[in-house]
Structures are given as structure tokens and as C-alpha cells.
Design goal:
3-stranded antiparallel beta sheet, 16 strands, 7-stranded antiparallel beta sheet, Phosphorylase Kinase, domain 1, alpha+beta, single chain, Transferase(Phosphotransferase), domain 1, 11 helices
């Protein structure tokens, strides 16, 4: 135990594959943080790996990485694993819903440039994300409001070991979110850099079109649904997928779908597709995203939408489905669980002004 910090626990702001996320305030410094809480006996614990990855991403860099959250503390006890990290803003999924499921071309192009850069960074560190979707990118706060962060590395996997790419393999279960997963992921092929990038392409097309061709395919059986979605993606040519879109989108998709399993992508080329279009349209890189404009017109409050419900489900390596988060006010069992978490987070827990104070230890 090298240090101790006391936090005042606030409202629940999210729910992920690991458990619950709460806002909190450091009692001594008044710094606002996010607290992730995972049951210690979780079937597939993820927070410890996520904490380690954030540390890896923030080490051995000539300059601090952009758009990668920082870990404040990680602690585990008999009941819970607890991760304190940067408190960030709403996700792109939440912002997209608040913008009526339609982003402007300018906004999508600014998003594309940043997100390709985030994937290049984590790939250069030797890791894949493996769950690229709108809810796993969030905006910063304060002076970092124009920065897009990549989050939730619970399903991430190392693809470079000892300077060598892991071997090609097939027969794998789908890992990630079916709506955005690559065609090769649906086929059961081990994921590599190309799969993160193809998934990002589907996210960008979703943002500009408002939907994807396979989005509304429903079936009771999860595996059957994954198969139907995968077959629909194979049937959908890049030309059809990118109908009525500027050619930058089809260029991107053709390139990433054509990558070999081991091939290192040309990230600058991918960014140039969108940068050239940005310049062609004579846009100004002023970070006037659609949600910024909408907030200025007082149509939304960015920090009152953190409890919006994700539309998609994620599947992990064990084939377990991770359901979207639920509304705490509508689910009394969740409120009871929060109370239980507060009781078990550490010794000397007190209540003050409607919040809970607890200690995290490293």
C-alpha cells in the first residue's frame, strides 16, 4: 500500500461489460474522476487488464498520448475491483442520439481523423481494441473538449509479441459488437489491425447515413443473428454500402477490406482520404462539431446526457453477451447493488450530503 485517496461517490454515469461506473470527487484535491467497479468474482474480470493497458499506453512515449485516459488508482478487495480514472464527457453514441441520429459531413470528417489516429497509437503499442463502436469513444472535458478519447479496453488483445505478429487462426467466436464487427470477425478469423479499422469504417458510415443495412435484422438466437448480420455484410458491396457518399468513404472501405491479416495499415493514407475531402469542401478545422453547435443554441446539455442507453450488445471471448446499461431509477435492484457496493468498497465508509466517502488503495 503506497498511497491512499478518499473519494466522494456521486451518481452512476455508466455501465459496461465489467460492471458500473460512478462519478466521484477526490476529497483532498477536489479532482473529479470516474470510478469503475467490478465484482471480484466476475467470470471474466477485465478491470485489472484495462488498468495495465492504460499504464502501458502512457509509458515510453516521447510526448504524452492524446485521447487516452489516465488511471488514477487501481485497487482490489475481497468483494470488488475498483478503477479510478479520468472523468470524461459523453460518448459519440450518446451525442449521436442527441443529434437525432445524424451527423454532418464536416463532423464525421473531423471524427474520422482523430479516431484513425487513436487506433494507430494503440496498434503501434501492439494491441487491438476489438470492440470499436460509438459508445467506446468519448469527448474530453474543459480544455480537452475537442479531443476524442478511446475507452473500454476490456476486450483488447495483444497482437504483437516479442516483435512478431501473432499467427493467423480461425474457428474463433465473435468478439465485439456484431453491428460493427468486420466480415472476417464474423467468419471466425482471429482479429488483427484491419478488423479495428473496418469496424471504424462502419461506425463512420453509420454516423453519416444514420443506419447500416443490417441494423434492423432481428432474431431470438444470438448466434443466428451474428450469422445473418455477417452474411448481410458479405452481400453488401462497398459501392452499395457507400451509395450517395463522397468517394473518400468507399476508398477507405476498399482499402481496409483489402488488407492482409499480417499487413500494417497505412494510417496516413487512410487519414488523407478524409483530409482531402475536408479541404475539397473548404471546411475549417474549428472543432465546431454538431453537438457543440447544438449546445451553444441551448438545445442540449452535454453533461446531462451521460445516462443514455446504448443500443448495441457486446460479445466477449467466451461468447457471453454484455447487455446495455439500465436506468438506475427504473431498476431497484441496481439501486440496491449500489448500496451494497458502497458498503463493501472499504473500511470506514461514511455518508455525507447524500454521497458516500470511501478509500481506494494502491
Amino acid at each position: 500500500m503506497s498511497s491512499q485517496a478518499k473519494f466522494k461517490l456521486g451518481q452512476k454515469i455508466g455501465y459496461g461489460s465489467f460492471g458500473h461506473v460512478f462519478s466521484a470527487t477526490n476529497i483532498d484535491t477536489q479532482e473529479e474522476v470516474a470510478i469503475k467497479v467490478e465484482a471480484a468474482d466476475a467470470k471474466v474480470p477485465q478491470l485489472h487488464q484495462e488498468a495495465k493497458l492504460y499504464e502501458i499506453f502512457h509509458s515510453n512515449n516521447s510526448v504524452p498520448p492524446v485521447g487516452i485516459p489516465k488511471v488514477k488508482q487501481f485497487n482490489t478487495n475481497a468483494h470488488y475491483n475498483i478503477l479510478a480514472m479520468d472523468l470524461l464527457g459523453p460518448s459519440l453514441g450518446e451525442l449521436f442520439r442527441m443529434c437525432d441520429y445524424q451527423f454532418s459531413l464536416k463532423t464525421v470528417l473531423m471524427i474520422a481523423d482523430q479516431l484513425i489516429a487513436r487506433l494507430e497509437f494503440i496498434h503501434n503499442k501492439g494491441y487491438l481494441h476489438r470492440d470499436i463502436k460509438p459508445d467506446n469513444f468519448v469527448i474530453g472535458t474543459g480544455k480537452q473538449r475537442n479531443v476524442l478519447y478511446i475507452i473500454d479496453f476490456g476486450l483488447s488483445k495483444r497482437f504483437m509479441k516479442g516483435g512478431w505478429h501473432v499467427n493467423y487462426a480461425d474457428g474463433k467466436k465473435l468478439v465485439g459488437t456484431a453491428r460493427y464487427s468486420s466480415i472476417n470477425t464474423h467468419k471466425g478469423i482471429e482479429q488483427s489491425r484491419r478488423d479495428d479499422l473496418e469496424a471504424l469504417g462502419y461506425v463512420l458510415i453509420y454516423f453519416i447515413k444514420g443506419e447500416l443495412p443490417w441494423q434492423h435484422m432481428k432474431t431470438q438466437d444470438k448466434l443466428e443473428r451474428h450469422q445473418i448480420i455477417g452474411e448481410a455484410k458479405e452481400r453488401t458491396s462497398v459501392a452499395e454500402l457507400c451509395t450517395d457518399l463522397p468517394k473518400a468513404f468507399s476508398q477507405y472501405m476498399e482499402y481496409v477490406r483489402g488488407l492482409d491479416y499480417y499487413e500494417k495499415p497505412d494510417y496516413q493514407k487512410l487519414r488523407s482520404f478524409f483530409k482531402d475531402l475536408f479541404a475539397e469542401r473548404k471546411y475549417t478545422e474549428d472543432f465546431e462539431f454538431d453537438w457543440v453547435i447544438k449546445e451553444r443554441r441551448k438545445k442540449i446539455n452535454l453533461f446531462e446526457i451521460l445516462n443514455a442507453t446504448p443500443e448495441t450488445q457486446t460479445t466477449n471471448d467466451n461468447g457471453l453477451t454484455i447487455s446495455p446499461k439500465v436506468d438506475e431509477q427504473k431498476d431497484t435492484s441496481l439501486a440496491e447493488k449500489k448500496s451494497h457496493i458502497i458498503k463493501k468498497l472499504g473500511s470506514g465508509v461514511k455518508t455525507k450530503a447524500g454521497y458516500s466517502i470511501f478509500s481506494c488503495f494502491i
